[in-house]
Design goal:
The protein is 0% helix and 39% strand. It is an all-beta fold and 223 residues long.
């Protein structure tokens, strides 16, 4: 069972207006991210390009850049993921960016979920709440043989770990409301200097999947 959230045959169409930036500039950093819509040259399918520059010079190596959804935050319109057990991203290869421009190019990305959004502080900044995060690595073939092809990233729900202000939350101290997800984010972070520089990730779809683990595993690759 699969439910497309963005893209795919029946998911919400990719639209820049559904996303907004949340970069380390809110803390005085210099990282920057964008989400733009483009079409694949072979199929003409609309896809989302998450790109920008990850800086490590300003915040002591602790740079981050992200884009988050804005469409699930109302009380009457959360994203309901009950009944599923994984998020699945389809990534168009050959578009990771940064090759030759950094000695530690961006390869690790993070998907972030939130089920609680508090009112903004008097200064306009958001109040911190628990985030649920899962990382994946986007590694391309050195000979470029996978350029233009799709790779499937499967993130089982149990891989999403709770954090608060970037620090892990003790196991058992928090539980995500899978029926009331109010925010989905795509993020890159420097991991204190492990990666930096230009990045680009082209996503053709994001879906929730129910996989019968007992009948043969996840059925797609985790990169």
């Amino acid at each position: 069972m699969e439910h497309y959230i963005f893209g795919g045959p029946n998911g919400r169409k990719w639209d820049e207006k559904d996303w907004t930036a949340s970069d380390d500039r809110v803390r005085g950093g210099k990282s920057i991210s964008h989400i733009t819509m483009t079409k694949t040259p072979d199929t003409g399918i609309t896809v989302a390009k998450f790109s920008g520059n990850l800086d490590i010079t300003t915040l002591g190596g602790a740079g981050f850049a992200s884009h988050r959804t804005t469409i699930f935050e109302g009380d009457d319109q959360p994203l309901d993921l009950k009944g599923f057990n994984a998020l699945v991203l389809k990534i168009v290869c050959g578009t990771s960016g940064g090759d030759g421009e950094s000695d530690r190019p961006v390869r690790k990305y993070t998907v972030v979920l939130k089920d609680t959004i508090l009112p903004k502080r008097p200064d306009g900044r958001e109040q911190s709440t628990i985030s649920w995060e899962a990382d994946f690595n986007m590694v391309l073939e050195e000979d470029g043989s996978d350029t233009g092809k799709e790779k499937t990233i499967t993130l089982p729900f149990e891989e999403f770990k709770p954090t608060y202000r970037g620090k892990p939350v003790e196991d058992g101290k928090a539980k995500l409301d899978w029926g009331g997800v109010k925010r989905v984010s795509l993020m890159v972070r420097s991991f204190f200097g492990d990666q930096y520089g230009p990045f680009s990730l082209v996503v053709s779809s994001i879906a929730a999947r129910k996989t019968a683990e007992e009948s043969g595993g996840w059925g797609c690759c985790v990169i």
